[in-house]
Design a protein that fits this description.
By secondary structure, the chain is of the alpha+beta class. The protein has five helices and six strands, in the order αβααββββαβα. The protein has two domains: 78 residues, Arc Repressor Mutant, subunit A (Orthogonal Bundle), CATH 1.10.10; 55 residues, Dna Ligase, domain 1 (2-Layer Sandwich). A hairpin with a 5-residue loop joins strand 2 and strand 3.
């Protein structure tokens, strides 16, 4: 997986990263913006969106897309390693997972079709044990 160069670190981007470092949960750009505002930051919503997008492109934050199409972000737990996610559809909690056989398959499939420089995202969704228990 190819990462874009690290985005230029601005005061606003540093504030976004600091907010991300304070929580392990996935949140939307709006959610991160609300968190920043509660902490007294004046960073605008558009800046939060741009910062999160740039950080995701540089693989510094994880980004997942919900069934409704909303993108959620969190500080990347494995900055130096490509990884995938197992995410609860109810509460949004996520775990990094290794899928080594998939990596081999994806590269072999791409090569067999004449593709190079491939990129991919694997996200498995389900209902975590806590949510499954609470819905019973």
């Amino acid at each position: 997986m190819n990462a874009s160069p690290a985005p230029r670190m601005t005061k606003q981007r540093a504030a976004v990263l600091e907010a991300l470092a304070g929580s392990a949960e996935f949140r939307s750009a709006q959610g991160w913006h609300e968190s920043l505002r509660r902490d007294g930051s004046t960073v605008g919503l558009a800046t939060v969106y741009r910062s999160l997008q740039a950080l995701a492109e540089a693989n510094e934050v994880d980004a997942v897309v919900t069934e409704s199409g909303e993108t959620l972000y969190r500080l990347c737990g494995a900055v130096d390693a490509h990884h995938h996610h197992l995410r609860c559809r109810v509460c949004g909690t996520a775990q990094d997972i290794e899928v080594p056989d998939f990596e081999e398959w994806a590269h072999a499939m791409a090569r067999s079709q004449g593709f190079t420089d491939i990129d991919h995202t694997v996200e498995i969704t389900g209902v975590c044990a806590a949510c499954a228990t609470s819905s019973r």
